[in-house]
Design a protein that fits this description.
There is one protein chain. The chain is an alpha+beta fold. Helix content is about 25%, strand content about 45%. The strands form three sheets. It has a seven-stranded antiparallel β-sheet, with helices on both faces.
Length: about 170
Amino acid sequence: MVSIDLFRDGMARLAGAVNLITTDGPMGFAGITATAVCSVTDQPPTLLTCINRASYAHAIFSANGVMCVNVLAADQQDVAQLFANRNISMPDRLARIATHLLATGSPALDGALVSFDCRIVQQHPLGSHDLFIGEVQAVTGGDGTAGLTYFQRSYHPVGSPSLAQAAG
């Protein structure tokens, strides 16, 4: 069996896009910083994210049944750090960002590269986390700026606005 430390050290070498996952609904607002996000299928458009069951936000996402996956731009490292800070309350976190609501009522982050508004259609336990599978209800795009990745336990910009515009 691989030790937790060895696994975490190995995963630190796997670059991942940094996302702010948000929800709002009957249980209120919650948001978390996550790199554990991927597409599942395009028919129907579906995303997956993983949330630790010990997280305060887990029960809120589960009860609200909706989530918005906001892919962070390179200049939004402060947002990633804000939502990774367990010492700041959810209302204080929300007060420090600009959002707009999408089809499900989940907050989309202003300035995100792209926001995927999802209805949670399945939830599966695995180890310490639950896999939340969301069917995409709406997609809003940003302005094509560089993205934000997490690699070797720190944030790094990826891409460039000029390359993104040339490719489009």
